[in-house]
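Continuing the batch. This is chain 6 of the set; chains 1 through 5 are on the previous pages. Same settings as before, nothing changed between runs. Recording input and output for traceability.
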Amino acid sequence: MLYSELEELHYIAHFDNVASIMKLGILPYNKAKRIQHTSFAMEEIQERRGNVIVPGAGKLHDYVNLYINARNTALFKRKEMHEKMAIFRINKDILRLPGVIITDRNASSSFVRFHYSPDGLRYIDRIKVFARYWTHPEDQAIEFEHKSCMCAEVLVPGKVETKYLLGAYCSNSHSANYFRKISSNCEVTINPYIFFQSC
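Output for chain 6:
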């Protein structure tokens, strides 16, 4: 994947956390757990991620994890909660910050590779990451790999400052109106597709 082919990055947030994000920025797991917040994450997944060390850097939980495409299998597992979440649009310029890491799939996958940004983009399979479907009934191994690749991440050390927030996606007008009440100074776009609410 080329830098020019990437429009933005994504961060999935519960509405309970929007006000904090707009004030403090997006914090990594180890910092966010010190303040009141609501998490979508499955406990067993966070336990696994808690054991991951980014080669030559530090703990995975010390990084903010952004998605190259939030319309992935992780979000699909939470699609019934779409009216309680927003997807923040993150300026891709963040890829040029020192210490940013790109993973070619889910960062806690057994086969993940870590690369410094922005050069690491060339290891991203754009077709897989932005595919509409990831199912491969004829080969479960291929399907497993595709699902993992769709969750390719950008790991940002420290935090994502508010200046990198371009806006947010909501799934429908109801959730968009609620988002505007929480954060009137953040542009919101209705995008049912990214939340698996349309074909």
